[in-house]
């Protein structure tokens, strides 16, 4: 078993490895190597990079195992490295670019300041996340790509593990560009959908629904879930929504959903659920990002979600693991 000193130094070294992976993602190295090995000079020319500097990064990337030497000074992708290609299923490229984007990098670097004062240093510098994204289209595009890719694994689990039989209408609350809703509708031909999000978010969702042949089964509605959500849904989906908000705000969102849903309706919350043990877990990593970027946002345990639902007159019925660290929590109106 590694000593505590080794574990600590592994964590310290992680920042250099992340920076190398970020460089690979930003420069599109994996895309350039997709068709076969290249030497550092040719790779640098294709990526618009400085050859000696790129060689040093490639040396680190080789040690991580995402590229390997292919003779005559050339490098090729490994199976692990292929996950950084833009066209790879579940590509990690957009996630690296998002986490390495200047404002997100700042947020994590300033975590000590956030912990010292109990307020997000990110917000103090850049403002609320979604306002920041709205004012920076390029960052917003990277964020949307990241969220879409991240949702792919969760969505396949949702479709495979949850029974939508009998559902007439599903409302995807804060559903972004509609990728999750489109996947659920394709798998359930008799269902209709409503995509609900802020105006600047849902503006282009119609293009996706048209391309997927779903335009006649899905409508988009713009608004704020703090005011209300579209009424008449049999199922309301909140995917990676509640963890952005503190207790009072999350309860307010759920109360609006509770008021809007049909009798016998249910609420599906797709989130990472924190375990009760001390073992490493994706949710604990994500929770520090929530701490860094939001004032009040957090990952929650099963017990905390049950309490959250109860405050909104809902009752947690079931928790289903979907894979990749995500879980689906199902709630219905509380019994009288």
UniProtKB/TrEMBL annotation:
Q: Which residues form the O-methyltransferase C-terminal domain?
A: 110-312
Residues at the catalytic site: 243 (proton acceptor)
Provide the O-methyltransferase dimerisation domain boundaries.
Answer: 9-79
Keyword vocabulary terms for this entry: Methyltransferase, S-adenosyl-L-methionine, Transferase
GO MF entry, a single one: protein dimerization activity
From which domain of life does this come? Bacteria
Biological process terms in GO annotation: methylation
Residue ranges annotated as transmembrane are none
| Matching Gene3D superfamilies | 1.10.287.1350, Vaccinia Virus protein VP39, Winged helix-like DNA-binding domain superfamily/Winged helix DNA-binding domain
Pfam families given for it?
A: Dimerisation, Methyltransf_2
- Which SUPFAM superfamilies does this chain map to? S-adenosyl-L-methionine-dependent methyltransferases, Winged helix' DNA-binding domain
Task: Name the chain's protein.
Answer: O-methyltransferase
The organism named in the record is: Nonomuraea solani
């Amino acid at each position: 078993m590694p000593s505590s000193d080794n574990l600590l130094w592994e964590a310290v070294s992680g920042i250099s490895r992340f920076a190398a992976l970020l460089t690979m993602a930003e420069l599109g190295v994996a895309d350039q190597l997709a068709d076969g090995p290249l030497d550092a000079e040719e790779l640098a020319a294709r990526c618009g990079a400085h050859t000696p500097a790129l060689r040093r990064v490639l040396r680190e990337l080789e040690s991580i195992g995402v590229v390997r030497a292919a003779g005559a000074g050339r490098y090729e992708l490994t199976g692990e490295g292929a996950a950084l290609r833009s066209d790879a299923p579940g590509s990690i490229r957009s996630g690296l670019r998002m986490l390495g984007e200047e404002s997100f990098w700042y947020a994590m670097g300033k975590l000590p300041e956030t912990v010292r004062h109990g307020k997000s240093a990110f917000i103090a510098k850049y403002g609320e996340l979604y306002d920041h994204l709205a004012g920076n289209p390029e960052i917003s595009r990277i964020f949307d790509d990241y969220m879409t890719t991240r949702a792919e694994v969760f969505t396949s689990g949702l479709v495979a593990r949850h029974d939508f039989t009998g559902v007439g209408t599903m409302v995807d609350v804060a559903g972004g560009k509609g990728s999750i809703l489109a996947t659920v509708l394709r798998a359930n031909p008799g269902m209709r959908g409503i995509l609900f999000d802020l105006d600047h978010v849902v503006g282009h969702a119609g293009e996706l629904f048209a391309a997927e042949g779903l335009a006649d089964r899905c409508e988009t509605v713009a608004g704020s879930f703090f005011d209300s959500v579209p009424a008449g849904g049999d199922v309301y989906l909140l995917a990676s929504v509640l963890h952005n908000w503190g207790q009072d705000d999350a309860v307010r969102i759920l109360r609006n959903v509770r008021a809007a849903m049909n009798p016998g309706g249910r609420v599906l919350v797709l989130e990472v659920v924190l375990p009760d043990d001390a073992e490493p877990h994706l949710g604990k990593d994500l929770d520090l990002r929530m701490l860094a970027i939001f004032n009040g946002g957090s990952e929650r345990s099963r017990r905390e979600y049950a309490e959250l639902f109860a405050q909104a007159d809902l009752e947690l019925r079931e928790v289903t693991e979907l894979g990749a660290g995500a879980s689906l929590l199902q709630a219905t109106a509380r019994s009288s």
